[in-house]
Design goal:
19% strand; Rossmann fold; binds ligand BJW; six-stranded parallel β-sheet; SIR2/SIRT2 'Small Domain'; three-stranded antiparallel β-sheet; alpha/beta; 2 domains; binds zinc ion
Amino acid sequence: MSRIVVLTGAGISAESGVPTFRDADGLWEGHHVEDVATPEGFERDPATVLRFYDERRAALGAVRPNPAHDALARLEAAVGEELLVVTQNIDDLHERAGSRQVLHMHGELLKAWCTSCDARHPWTGTLIERPACPSCGEVALRPDVVWFGEIPYEMDRIVDALGEAEIFVSIGTSGAVYPAAGFVQHARRHGARAIELNLEPSEGTFFFHEARHGRAGELVPAWVDELLGA
Ligand code: BJW
Ligand code: ZN
């Protein structure tokens, strides 16, 4: 039973040194989003897209969970299965902090997906050299991530959890990308209290019962302390 559903976005990993997506210049580490986060962009220029994800996968080695990830792991240790973390992030910082109940709705950097045989493989190396799929031998691996126009993962489990939630908390996400941006309304329709913890008001900030603005590394530990009555 998911009494507490937490949605996280790039902002929760920002203080770990993982760049967020929507910077002031509208570019994503120098790329237009349609070039690196759509199936059409991948078809047009696979090398650019594979290099982009290879660099982000390599950069994971240099980052560590921050106090916001740690606080959510501490909350799970206290309430167990009553907490579900749904993350839009493809990094593994929730897991490294100790969270176990995590759904990666936009996929994972540390997995490769074979579009020929549909196998998914743990992946720590690079894909730019077009390695063969360990299962079927075809050259058809891509990052196991969800691009625009593709269907996010685990939607059935997420929708069920949102329907059961008493508390829905959105952390470090701009509220610009659907379906995640609509979770707050879904949870509220089913009776959840909704809280936003973000650096600044998100695009959907008015959907929340309560919004606190500041750094996740400060807001999240404070919210967890409050919830646990510390
Ligand atoms: C801090 C902080 C600190 C910073 N502390 N906070 C028109 C209208 C409505 C919808 C659509 C439309 N046209 C198309 C669509 C659908 C489309 C969509 O939403 N497009 C929008 C652009 C409008 N969505 C899709 O295509 C999705 N699929 C879909 O809808 O399928 C149909 C379907 C759904 C459900 C069931 C059945 C069918 C797929 C979306 C895939 C998104 N993929 C990406 C790339 C993933 C791989 C990768 O990482 O490379 O996901 S794009 C990118 O955006 C990534 C992120 O997960 C996602 C969200 O970004 P996020 O996390 O919010 O980051 P930012 O940078 O935007 O915001 C960071 C926030 O943190 C900011 O607010 C900061 O202030 C804050 N912050 N420092 C606290 N220290
Ligand atoms: Zn294969």
